[in-house]
Design brief:
This is Radical SAM core domain-containing protein. GO terms for molecular function: 4 iron, 4 sulfur cluster binding; catalytic activity. It comes from Aldrovandia affinis. By secondary structure, the protein is of the alpha/beta class. The chain has two domains: 200 residues, Transcription Regulator spoIIAA; 71 residues, no CATH class. It has 17 helices and 13 strands. Strand 4, helix 7 and strand 5 form a beta-alpha-beta unit.
Length: 371
């Protein structure tokens, strides 16, 4: 690891011991395995990475990537997340990927050999020209070769990309919203039939292969972001009164490295979250999970404002419960099967209700961050 990265970790270490490490944000599998080993050594030294930590590496399924998987395991990686995206070569070309379906399948096979039960694949639906029948067939094909974790994502067009221009010029067309909704519902049903339990909006696992880092995000856990463009949420060490900070690091790699070498860190922005902002994150992220937000979990962040007080009195929220989209009971607050599919439409009234109650309670101070 470079001296810059070493300094960035040391400068931003929070006051907790880490139980997972994720190499993501692009194509980290392009890095030499020796670099991954050096990073893990530095994280262990400065941030207390546990010996049994989940160490995930995002992998681009190219011939170069698959050839290095065994060395990544020797470096300390014990879980792979493979950006498979599609099993259709034509669609991979449209998406601008630099691998084909055979490369993807070989990568999955080798990763499963090295880390059985600890391999995830990412798949994109809603691709240009994709039909519901084609999507269902592709998913069934994928389930013949995948491991125990699948992540499904609806295609998002990124401004400035060639695909964005093709779609907006009319050269390519995406499936309609109704078709995309059917694709998502069909995928949920197919995965359930094959033993995969949905534990989050986009994530499915069988045989207990739930991703620890995914659960950490959605349960509003603390995490340290290191490297160009990284984000973090944690209580800084030695800053007792601080609730929790949101940190954003410099995006440009060369600028980030110069800043770390000069200042000892590459942090571009530090923002202390108010109590209300923290509760908003707990709500938005927690409702992505099928387990939702338990009363006990909520009280860790808001001992003076319980879920029943916030969500149990609004007529609008009671209507959502009557429509079978939202459940508030002795377990806590969560979406129903139907509600999870339309979560984005449920969040605005929930956030409005939270903000109104927080304002009334004067909940604008600080609270202790929860791991």
């Amino acid at each position: 690891m470079s001296a810059a990265g070493d300094g960035d970790v040391a400068a931003t270490q929070p006051s907790i011991q880490h139980h997972l490490c994720v190499f993501g944000g692009g194509t980290p599998s392009l890095a030499p395995p020796s670099t991954i080993a050096a990073v893990l050594e530095t994280v262990t030294k400065h941030a207390g990475l546990r010996g049994d930590a989940e160490v995930t590496l995002e992998v681009n399924p190219t011939p170069v990537g698959v050839a290095k998987l065994a060395d990544f395991v020797l470096a300390g990686v014990n879980r792979f997340s493979i950006g498979l995206q599609s099993l259709r070569d034509e669609d991979l070309r449209v998406l601008g990927r630099d691998h084909d379906s055979q490369h993807a399948l070989r990568t999955v096979e080798e990763a499963r050999r090295l880390c059985p039960g600890h391999v995830s694949v990412d798949v994109i639906f809603g691709r240009p020209g994709q039909s519901l029948a084609c999507w269902e067939g592709e998913l069934q094909e994928l389930l013949l070769v995948c491991d125990d974790h699948v992540s499904l994502y609806q295609l998002t067009l990124e401004r400035g990309t060639h695909l964005f221009k093709q779609v907006h010029s009319g050269e390519l067309s995406l499936p309609g919203e109704d078709i995309m909704a059917c694709m998502y519902e069909s995928a949920r049903r197919i995965l359930e039939e094959r033993g995969f339990l949905q534990y989050e909006v986009s994530n499915f696992a069988r045989r207990g292969a739930v991703s620890s880092h995914n659960m950490g995000y959605w349960r509003a856990g603390q995490y340290l972001g290191v490297g160009p463009g990284a984000h973090g949420r944690f209580v800084p060490r030695g800053e007792g009164g601080v609730c929790r900070e949101a940190r954003t690091l410099t995006l440009e790699p060369d600028v980030w490295m110069r800043e770390v070498q000069r200042w000892g860190h590459g942090t571009r922005r530090r923002a202390e979250l108010s109590h209300t902002e923290l509760l908003e994150e707990v709500l938005v992220m927690g409702l992505r999970l099928t387990e939702g937000i338990s009363h006990q979990h909520w009280k860790q962040f808001s001992p003076g404002l319980d879920l029943q007080q916030v969500m149990g009195v609004s007529a609008e929220l009671q209507e959502l419960q009557e429509r079978g989209l939202l459940i508030l009971d002795h377990r806590g607050l969560r979406c129903s099967w139907e509600g999870l599919a339309v979560l984005d439409s449920l969040l605005p009234p929930l956030l409005s209700e939270l903000q109104a109650h927080a304002h009334a309670q004067g909940a604008v101070g600080r609270t202790t961050g929860s791991e």
